[in-house]
Design a protein that fits this description.
It contains three helices and two strands; from the N terminus they run αββαα. It is mostly helical. Strands 1-2 form a two-stranded antiparallel ribbon. β1 and β2 form a beta hairpin.
Length: 79
Amino acid sequence: MRKYDLGPRENRVVGKVLADQAKHIGDQVWLMSDDRKLTFAESNDIVNRYAHGLRAAGVKQGDPVTVLGDPSIDSVLLA
C-alpha cells in the first residue's frame, strides 16, 4: 500500500481526503460489501454526482440533509 502525507489533521475534510486519495491511489479498493467493491476513484465519482445533484436542487454547503435507506455502500458514501 502506498502512503503519502495528508497534511495537518485539523485541515482534513472527508470529501477532500477522499478526493486526494482518488488522485493518488484511485485504483485501490476502499469499500467492499458482499457483492460490490468500490475503488477510491469510483467512490469519489459517486460522491461528486450526489453533491452536484444536491447543489442543483438548491442545497448549500452546511445545509442539513437527511439520508434514508437500507445499510449499503451508498449510505456510507452519503454519510
